[in-house]
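Worked problem 6 (solution included).
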Amino acid sequence: MRVRTLTCASAVVAATALHAEIYEVGTFRAIEVQQDVRLAVTIADEQLVTAEALDGDVSKLRLREFLPWIVFDRDTRWLIFPKWREDVLQVSVETPVLNGLKAFDGAQATFSGDADERLWIEAGDGGAVTVPDVRVDELTLVAREGGTIVVAGDCDRLTIRNEGISIDASGMDCSSFVVRGDPAGVTLPAGAVTVDEHPEVSG
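Solution. The predicted structure is:
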């Protein structure tokens, strides 16, 4: 992984330079974000990973590669109490394909776009994932303890497993719904009928 620094002027913050780090990584298809880091993912023709500190030091962001996964968290090796770090770190990712998105430990992730055939979304330990508009064949939502997920869009098959705070899928238009775990924390579209198993895909 190589890191470059892009400096740009901001009309909003007079006489202040914003430094965006550009990360060169291997080909990935899934992203995990941790430790209060903010992440925004969009679908694009080419892969691009950038980050900036909305407040604090962007060098405290750590990127690790477990291809096809990449993971963003904080470099807290120098700090005795890492939870006390208050840098507001924002990551922006453009990728041609997204198959997995996870947010844990207070992290926040957003995504919109065509996710191809399959997308796995998972949140836990105060993590939150928001997907205002997704198009995908097979969507899986997993809320671990303390996790929150809000999704809207279109899919063929939606599978939900709720062990967390809530999963709001009321904005999803899907052909088939399967719900496992705690149904009390799951919101589905009006009139949605759940089944024990998805029907077999023909053809």
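Discussion: The chain has two domains: 1-97, 101-203.
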